[in-house]
Amino acid sequence: MTHVQRHVDPTLAYRFACRVGMCGSCAMTVNGRARWTCRTHVDAVADAGRVEIAPLAHLPIVRDLVVDMSRFFDRWAEARGAFVPTATRNDAFAVVPPSAPARKAVDAAIECIGCGICYASCDVVAWKPEYLGPAALNRAWTLVNDARDGAHAERLRAVAGDAGCHACHTQQTCTERCPKHLAPTGSIAGLKRLVARAALKGEL
Amino acid sequence: MTPVAAATWRWLAQRISAAVLAACVLVHLATILYATRHGLSTEAILARTHASRLWPAFYGLFVVAVAVHAPLGLRVILDEWSGLRGRALDVLLLLFALALLAGGLRAVSAIA
Predict the structure, then answer these.
(1) Whether A82 and A59 share a structural domain
(2) How far is B102 from chain A (nearest CA, A)?
(3) Is A108 exposed, middle or buried (0-12, 13-18, 19+ CB in 10 A)?
(4) Looking at A41, A67, A93, which one is the last position of a domain?
(5) From the list A127, A192, A198, which residue is nearest B81 (CB)?
(6) Are A133 and A118 in contact (CB under 8 A)?
(7) Do residues A99 and A30 share a domain?
(8) What's the domain range around A50?
(9) pLDDT tens digits for A103-145?
(10) What's the total number of domains in chain A?
(11) pTM score, whole prediction
């Protein structure tokens, strides 16, 4: 992309920041498939010597390869993706054993960089734009497993419903394409179980 | 019931009915294989189903599971592909469920 901008078309607009797979800003559609472009070698994806680069799917285009990520991050807020503390700065540090099953579940899902590849790859998002999407639900899963968080019940209500975790068809495209090798499908399955349990207890 | 709870119960109902259907389909297939392998006539099959309350109960459960499962699956497809939502969708699927239930139970009554 940098070569094209510097030598072919200086007006080309695209996003990048870290160049090392940390910031999640360079996701684009490469030969029809969402990828992080900073860590994608052209020779690995060229199809008969051709590479077609397009903006991420399911998000409004601002210009060239730049999409408006607002809808993607709005879904995180709708899924109650913000940590709600139960302690104050005067309290002692929470003790969370790394071996605790809930903490292990958090560890498996926490490394999301918010690139939007899963969201752009999800068929349910295409059919149902109000669907919260894999990344927001994965974020909610890390928080419902966080022993320090104080909004479990509200979060379960936020991720339930027709546009929430139960809308996932378990097609696993998000899991297949996540550049950080996370498994949002597994996180969503975990939310489905917790939400179903809450419904059985009459807590929704 | 909140809309969120209703959606979760719909999901649960579809999963539970799917589990029931999985067992029912296996028993149904085994029954068909048994009947055809042993060359049972229509009269012989009906004589057996009339003699036992288990067969109408089994097929009654089968019909109820279908009437729960199919409309809920169709609901998701129509929601995603046609944009049909809200009360109109609920009424349409309720009618579909009732039609499945009526047709199925009519067939069950014939073997009872």
Answers:
(1) no
(2) 28
(3) middle
(4) A67
(5) A127
(6) yes
(7) no
(8) 2-67
(9) 999 999 999 999 999 999 999 999 999 999 999 999 999 999 9
(10) 2
(11) 0.91
Whether residue A189 lies within 8 A of chain B, CB to CB, comes out as no
Tally of helices (H runs) and strands (E runs) in chain B: 4, 0
A107 plus A177 within the same structural domain:
yes
Q: How crowded is residue A139: how many other Cβ atoms within 10 Å of its Cβ? A: 25
Q: Does B81 touch chain A (CB under 8 A)?
A: yes
Domains of chain B, first to last: 3-111 (1.20.1300.10)
Nearest-CA residue of chain B relative to A199? B5
Give per-residue pLDDT as tens, B49-106.
Answer: 999 999 999 999 999 999 999 999 999 999 999 978 888 999 999 999 999 999 999 9
A20 with A99, same domain: the answer is: no
Q: Is the ipTM of this complex over 0.90?
A: no
Contact A204 B4 (CB under 8 A): yes
